[in-house]
């Protein structure tokens, strides 16, 4: 009898882990299907755009024999389904082909440019979140006050003012006139040979090396474009946080908590904000993804050697291998951030488990 009870208890114990395991498998399956669909979409983009890859490699003045030889070399003579299968196999091995401009593998070009954008977008995201979330909370608590009006004006400027115009005005004021920041580029020319790349992030590498003059130089280059990018994310984050918090502060549990004598800020941060934390995480994640793929104009104004600028130059030059590789990476970024958000939902909100 005891053995039967023990066996039943053990079976019931294993059964508890089945639903979470199935949930994980379903989530991984959906991510896999999404990535395959994304690969199919990027493949079709490369085939449908009115850019001849052969002419992009050889130029317009090419003989028929050379054109046909390159056409076969690029595999364009094979059936479309065979081309897609070969493309999918290469993508699984992180092989996006070679850049038609530089002749180097596309994955190396992305690895060279993406850290610059990642460093810039991460700093901008930290600034935007660090200011936007508290500003949105304060604007919700003190509605129609000076703080609320400041939040609204900041959101209006962040939404309406183009980044390229803000960048140019920032360079004129803070670089040319006041000299508070360094000019365009990622690092000063005299400091280029002092940098020892380790992580690909100049600020981190300079700090790890203990080279503080180099750190100040790199920080002087990155702070202005980071602030320009942060303004747009700050506007979105503060506005959405304000809306979420206003809705929560009007709930009955807030009135009950205040009637019981709980302090206002304890109610705001420990109760109301915890209920909107999942929504705020979604807003922050989307803002971060858009910063990673949408910093093209800011990178162009500040001559920032980043991923967005590389993708734009590749598109203008007809380098479809690079464009398709960059497009696929952007899609993967959104999928990964969405997956991270789902995991954080389960940690912060027991109702989603």
TrEMBL record:
<keyword id="KW-1133">Transmembrane helix</keyword>
<comment type="similarity">
    <text>Belongs to the binding-protein-dependent transport system permease family.</text>
</comment>
<dbReference type="InterPro" id="IPR000515">
    <property type="entry name" value="MetI-like"/>
</dbReference>
<feature type="domain" description="ABC transmembrane type-1">
    <location>
        <begin position="114"/>
        <end position="345"/>
    </location>
</feature>
<keyword id="KW-1003">Cell membrane</keyword>
<feature type="transmembrane region" description="Helical">
    <location>
        <begin position="218"/>
        <end position="237"/>
    </location>
</feature>
<feature type="transmembrane region" description="Helical">
    <location>
        <begin position="163"/>
        <end position="181"/>
    </location>
</feature>
<dbReference type="InterPro" id="IPR045621">
    <property type="entry name" value="BPD_transp_1_N"/>
</dbReference>
<feature type="transmembrane region" description="Helical">
    <location>
        <begin position="276"/>
        <end position="302"/>
    </location>
</feature>
<feature type="transmembrane region" description="Helical">
    <location>
        <begin position="120"/>
        <end position="142"/>
    </location>
</feature>
<feature type="transmembrane region" description="Helical">
    <location>
        <begin position="28"/>
        <end position="49"/>
    </location>
</feature>
<keyword id="KW-0472">Membrane</keyword>
<dbReference type="Pfam" id="PF19300">
    <property type="entry name" value="BPD_transp_1_N"/>
</dbReference>
<dbReference type="InterPro" id="IPR035906">
    <property type="entry name" value="MetI-like_sf"/>
</dbReference>
<dbReference type="Pfam" id="PF00528">
    <property type="entry name" value="BPD_transp_1"/>
</dbReference>
<keyword id="KW-0813">Transport</keyword>
<feature type="transmembrane region" description="Helical">
    <location>
        <begin position="322"/>
        <end position="345"/>
    </location>
</feature>
<keyword id="KW-0812">Transmembrane</keyword>
<protein>
    <submittedName>
        <fullName>ABC transporter permease</fullName>
    </submittedName>
</protein>
């Amino acid at each position: 009898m005891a053995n039967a009870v023990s066996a039943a208890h053990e079976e019931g114990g294993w059964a508890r882990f089945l639903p979470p395991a199935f949930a994980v498998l379903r989530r991984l399956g959906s991510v896999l299907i999404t990535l395959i669909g994304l690969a199919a979409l990027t493949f079709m983009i490369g085939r449908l755009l009115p850019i001849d890859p052969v002419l992009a490699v050889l130029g317009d003045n090419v003989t028929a024999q050379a054109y046909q030889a390159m056409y076969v070399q690029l595999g364009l003579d094979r059936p479309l389904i065979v081309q897609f299968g070969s493309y999918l196999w290469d993508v699984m091995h992180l092989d996006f082909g070679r850049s038609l401009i530089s002749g180097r593998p596309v994955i190396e070009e992305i690895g060279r440019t993406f850290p610059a954008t990642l460093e810039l977008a991460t700093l901008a995201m930290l600034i935007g979140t660090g200011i936007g979330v508290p500003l949105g909370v304060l604007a919700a608590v003190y509605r129609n006050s000076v703080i609320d009006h400041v939040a609204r004006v900041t959101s209006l400027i962040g939404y309406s003012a183009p980044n390229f115009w803000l960048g140019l005005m920032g360079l004129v004021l803070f670089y040319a006139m006041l000299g508070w920041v360094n000019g365009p580029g990622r690092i000063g020319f005299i400091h280029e040979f002092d940098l020892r790349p380790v992580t690909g992030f100049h600020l981190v590498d300079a700090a790890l090396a203990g080279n503080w003059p180099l750190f100040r130089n790199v920080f002087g280059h990155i702070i202005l474009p980071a602030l320009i990018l942060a303004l747009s994310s700050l506007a979105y984050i503060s506005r959405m946080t304000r809306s979420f918090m206003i809705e929560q502060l009007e709930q009955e549990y807030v009135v009950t908590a205040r009637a019981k004598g709980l302090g206002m800020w304890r109610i705001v941060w420990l109760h109301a904000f915890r209920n909107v934390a999942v929504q705020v995480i979604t807003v922050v994640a989307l803002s971060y993804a858009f910063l990673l793929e949408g910093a093209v104009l800011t990178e162009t104004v500040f001559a920032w050697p980043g991923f967005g600028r590389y993708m734009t130059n590749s598109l203008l030059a007809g380098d479809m291998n690079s464009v398709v590789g960059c497009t696929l990476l952007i899609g993967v970024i959104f999928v990964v951030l969405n997956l991270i958000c789902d995991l954080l939902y389960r940690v912060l909100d027991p109702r989603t488990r």
